[in-house]
């Protein structure tokens, strides 16, 4: 593995830290981990720190070659999203709103039928009437 010349892991939704073993890749000419969710300090090596900042874009990384400095406890800067895409939370809110809409509509129909007796009787009479009409229709056709 130490003979790898090119490694492009961009846009792979990777989480966690860059492993220190990447610093042993001495023949690496191209390295890209941009647009993932990596955190922590970039391992110290001449090879990894020689790549452009674009190789580490849209991650929560710190240390050279980036301008974010690391402290012993973590980052000295915040890890807010700096103008990157926020698609992950949009997808989550979409599913949450679908579930909330379904629950509200479901209970908007079921709750009155459950609690208001006159609505319940009217609903089941209408349902019974539709069922009888379907039965008569089916009996006359075939």
TrEMBL record:
Keyword Secreted appears in the UniProt entry: no
Protein's UniProt keywords contain ATP-binding: no
UniProt entry keywords in alphabetical sequence: Glycoprotein, Membrane, Receptor, Signal, Transmembrane, Transmembrane helix
Transmembrane segments: 93-116
A GO cellular-component term linked to this record: membrane
Major location category of this protein: membrane
Places the protein is found: Membrane
Recorded topology in the membrane: Single-pass type I membrane protein
Name recorded for this polypeptide: Leucine-rich repeat-containing N-terminal plant-type domain-containing protein
Native source organism of the sequence: Gossypium lobatum
């Amino acid at each position: 593995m130490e003979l790898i010349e090119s490694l492009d892991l961009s846009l792979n939704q990777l989480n966690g830290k860059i492993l220190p073993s990447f610093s042993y890749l001495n023949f690496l000419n191209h390295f890209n981990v941009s647009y993932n969710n990596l955190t922590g300090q970039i391992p110290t090596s001449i090879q990894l720190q020689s790549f452009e900042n674009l190789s580490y874009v849209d991650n929560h990384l710190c240390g050279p070659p980036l301008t974010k400095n690391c402290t012993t406890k973590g980052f000295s800067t915040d890890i807010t999203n700096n103008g990157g895409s926020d698609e992950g939370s949009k997808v989550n809110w979409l599913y949450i709103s679908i579930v909330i809409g379904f629950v509200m509509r479901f209970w908007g129909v079921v709750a009155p039928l459950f609690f208001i007796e006159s609505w319940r009787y009217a609903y089941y009479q209408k349902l019974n009437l539709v069922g009888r009409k379907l039965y008569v229709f089916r009996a006359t056709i075939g």
